[in-house]
Design goal:
Helix 6 packs parallel to helix 8 and helix 7 packs antiparallel against helix 8. With 313 residues, the chain is α/β, with parallel strands linked by helices. It folds into 2 domains: 157 residues, Acetylglutamate kinase-like (Carbamate kinase); 86 residues, Acetylglutamate kinase-like (Carbamate kinase, 3-Layer(aba) Sandwich), CATH 3.40.1160. Strand 13 and strand 14 form a beta hairpin. The strands form 4 sheets. An 8-stranded mixed beta sheet has the order 3-9-2-1-12-16-17-15. It has a 4-stranded mixed beta sheet with strand order 8-4-10-11. A 3-stranded antiparallel beta sheet has the order 5-7-6. The chain is globular. It contains 9 helices and 17 strands.
Length: 313
């Protein structure tokens, strides 16, 4: 196989399932890295990005529970930075361990990443990004009573979740450093949770109460570092038409023109597959290079081209 520069985007659910303890998440990350090391074994240059939706939502709950005058709760942008650091720590620790286990003399490093957004992005008036735990319909009244300022939506048939603004990434401030790290043969772990959302105010970067979709940030980074391929890894596999219906059909090879028609018809769930497809299409349009959406467990097969949805020009 041809060796490639690849940006891999992991969902926050690849790190946290039902057990939110640090130990359980570290175990999940170790399993994830045992899949990711296949890219390194193949000789590819790897850039890892990841989500933080479950983690930042849980951290906000912890912050709210201990909020006081002397120990005030941290704002959303700072909580995003905290989870970017903690998940990055777990990932680089596990990735370095797995590479040593496979006799690979390489290192990974976490780059705390800030993502510039437009302060006038309409997303600030229309919160849409799910974060935190799922709630059942029976729990809704209690959650709304405890958190009257929250907006909650039904999330792709899996329950109800809090949603927050999700502006589009405009600029990745650390991308020259990320590119330099890759060029030096080091594996960077970047833009956790899409990166910390900031707006420019002269020479200052000011944090915003938002969460950036990690797939859009991964697409932007992949363009900036001249990636040969963007790979978005999920827990469910590739792209399906009519997902969840009796006639659902997985797509293995599709042009951006064809899949754009399905996007235009709102056929993909807004909280899950839609942003992944949009991010993949954006990368292909900008670079002419392919993007792949597939299952984390299928990495070996994705590398040789037997699994995943390949989106091409």
């Amino acid at each position: 196989m041809t060796k490639e520069r690849i940006v891999v985007a992991l969902g926050g659910n690849a790190i946290l399932s039902t057990n939110a303890s640090a130990k359980a998440q570290q175990e999940a990350v170790l399993k994830t890295c045992k899949s990711l090391v296949e890219f390194v074994k193949n000789g590819d240059e790897l850039i890892i990005t990841h989500g933080n939706g479950p983690q930042v939502g849980n951290l906000l709950l912890q912050q709210a529970a201990t909020n006081s005058r002397t120990n005030p709760a941290m704002p959303l942008d700072t909580c995003g930075a905290m989870t970017e650091g903690s998940i990055g720590y777990w990932l680089q620790n596990a990735m370095n361990q797995v590479m040593k286990d496979n006799g690979i003399n390489k290192q990974s490093i976490t780059v705390i990443t800030q993502t510039v957004v437009d302060g006038n992005d309409p997303a600030f008036e229309d919160p849409s990004k799910p974060i935190g735990p799922f709630y059942t319909e029976e729990e809704l009244d209690s959650v709304k009573s405890d958190h009257p300022d929250w907006k909650l939506i039904e999330d792709a048939g899996r329950g109800y979740r809090r949603v927050v603004p999700s502006p589009k990434p405009v600029e990745i401030t650390e991308y020259p450093a990320i590119k330099a790290v890759v060029d030096a043969g080091v594996i960077p772990i970047v833009a956790g949770g899409g990166g910390i959302p900031v707006v420019r105010d002269g020479n200052k970067l000011v944090g915003k109460e938002a969460v950036i979709d990690k797939d859009f940030s991964a697409s932007k980074i992949a363009q900036l570092v001249d990636a040969d391929k963007l790979i978005i890894l999920t827990s469910k596999g590739g792209v399906f038409y009519n997902f969840g219906q009796p006639d659902q059909r997985e797509i293995f090879d599709v042009s951006i023109d064809e899949i754009q028609r399905h996007l235009n018809r709102d056929e993909f769930a807004k909280g899950s597959m839609r942003p992944k497809v949009q991010a993949a299409v954006g990368f292909v349009k900008a670079t002419g290079n392919p993007a792949v959406i597939g299952a984390l467990d299928d990495v070996k097969e994705i590398i040789i081209g037997n699994k995943g949805t390949v989106i091409h020009k």
